[in-house]
């Protein structure tokens, strides 16, 4: 996979998730960050840092991006969310417009 086809998402603790750009574009916020005109660091380097999103939450969000791409066609499947992650995950999803 070419570097242009991937995006690096960095959690508050500095853990890096390298995912398909197509998966990252599920998030309207990330899409805006990566496609905005101008010379923003996110656009130039293909990486986005989330200082307020923990590693465990960002990992679950990345899983959701791939799940969303796979099942966007309408096939009904359930995306499992651990109850203890619910509040923090909802706040991150709201920020990411996911």
From TrEMBL:
Annotated compartments: Nucleus
Domain SKP1 component POZ: 6-66
Regions crossing the membrane: none
GO cellular component: elongin complex
GO BP annotation list: jasmonic acid mediated signaling pathway; ubiquitin-dependent protein catabolic process
Highest taxon of the lineage: Eukaryota
UniProt pathway annotation: Protein modification; protein ubiquitination
SUPFAM superfamilies in alphabetical order: POZ domain
Keywords: Elongation factor, Nucleus, Protein biosynthesis
MF GO annotations: protein-macromolecule adaptor activity; translation elongation factor activity
Family the entry assigns: Belongs to the SKP1 family.
Protein name: Elongin-C
Protein species of origin: Nelumbo nucifera (Sacred lotus)
Species lineage: Eukaryota, Viridiplantae, Streptophyta, Embryophyta, Tracheophyta
Gene name linked to the record: LOC104597068
């Amino acid at each position: 996979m070419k570097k242009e086809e991937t995006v690096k998402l960095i959690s508050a603790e500095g853990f890096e998730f390298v995912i398909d750009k197509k998966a990252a574009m599920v998030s309207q916020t990330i899409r805006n960050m990566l496609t905005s005109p101008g010379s923003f660091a996110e656009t130039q380097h293909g990486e986005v840092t989330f200082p307020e999103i923990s590693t465990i939450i960002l990992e679950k969000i990345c899983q959701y991006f791939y799940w969303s791409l796979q099942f966007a066609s309408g096939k009904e499947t359930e995306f499992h969310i651990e109850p203890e992650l619910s509040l923090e995950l909802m706040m991150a999803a709201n920020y990411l417009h996911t």
